[in-house]
Specification:
Blueprint lengths: L4 H9 L7 H39 L2 H34 L5 H7 L2 H4 L2 H12 L6 H4 L10 H27 L2 H8 L4 H29 L3 H7 L9 H10 L3 H39 L1
Helix pairs in contact: 2-13, 3-8, 3-10, 6-8, 6-11, 8-10, 8-11, 9-10, 10-13, 12-13
Length: 289
């Protein structure tokens, strides 16, 4: 091979800044195993050691069932509201230009950077009986702090960035051409939203919902201050895990943690399956055309 052909060969193959695939994959899996897989595997093995009877006994405790019901219900409602609100925020940030737009875009990530305990204290100060909002709602008979409503608000706060950041890049890639084409054909705004925009945003909306739901299930710091932590009423599942550990009931703590882990794992599977599902449906629609 001539020396003149070497640059073309290097350009064609591409130069990689990291070593070969085998070494890169091995190092990546090693770090992933140490940080993520080993702790999860230890939890799974400990849960399997309880046996089906021991696991069911721990889960069927009335206090555990009340906390699980509260956590799953509040997480579902919060993820649903965060998905809708996040889509609206993403739409405003992407489609409009106004003073303070970049500041609004930066504020979306504030729940990621803010310590969860600080967020919980701030939300409690706002929605308590003498807070900025609570002082006006409680005389009307609407109590927010130390109720499931306050828990849901805290979970919306930490789930909103997931919804915004999953929808925002899709809107940026979508552009306005399809909407303008629909308008030129006489479609109303509602028809354009329903037939043009929403089908493109639906995979991102479902992904954002799954991420917000999975995060809300395991949220602890931003919830315990505003929840009030009353057994059977405002006690969330992550807090009950801590209580079981303090009571030296390791089996009960592992059983609850394993259930939350399984729910989060299902959400992650859904996140990875959503793009494949919609890609398959679009291929089928193109074949029909």
């Amino acid at each position: 091979m001539s020396t003149l052909a070497l640059p073309a060969l290097i350009t064609r193959r591409g130069r990689r800044p990291l070593p070969g695939f085998g070494l890169s994959l091995g190092l990546g899996l090693a770090w992933l195993s140490v940080v993520v897989l080993l702790p999860l595997a230890a939890l799974a093995l400990r849960a399997a050691g309880l046996g089906a009877e021991g696991w069911l006994r721990a889960i069927q405790d009335p206090r555990v069932q009340a906390s699980l019901k509260l956590s799953f219900t509040a997480s579902f409602i919060a993820a649903l509201i965060a998905s809708v609100a996040g889509a609206l925020v993403a739409w405003v940030v992407v489609r409009y230009r106004f003073p303070g737009r970049r500041l609004l875009d930066a504020l979306v990530d504030l729940p990621f950077a803010l310590p969860t305990a600080v967020a919980g204290i701030a939300l409690t100060a706002i929605y308590s009986a003498n807070g900025w909002v609570g002082r006006y709602t409680e005389p009307l008979g609407i109590k927010i702090a130390y109720t499931p409503i306050g828990i849901t608000i805290a979970l919306i706060f930490i789930g909103l960035p997931f919804a915004v950041r999953t929808v925002q890049p899709v809107l940026e890639a979508l552009g306005r051409e399809q909407e303008e084409a629909a308008a030129s054909l006489g479609a109303s705004r509602l028809t354009t939203l329903r037939r043009v925009v929403l089908p493109e945003l639906l995979p991102a909306l479902l992904t954002g919902f799954s991420l917000a739901f999975a995060r809300a299930l395991g949220e602890y710091g931003s919830v315990i201050f505003i929840a009030g932590n009353l057994p059977y009423k405002t006690e969330i599942a992550p807090l009950l895990i801590t209580i079981r550990l303090e009571e030296y009931d390791y089996g009960g703590a592992v059983a609850i943690a394993a259930l939350l882990l399984a729910a989060s794992f299902v959400c992650l599977l859904a996140i990875n399956a959503i793009p494949l599902l919609f890609a398959h449906e679009r291929k089928g629609a193109r074949r029909d055309v």
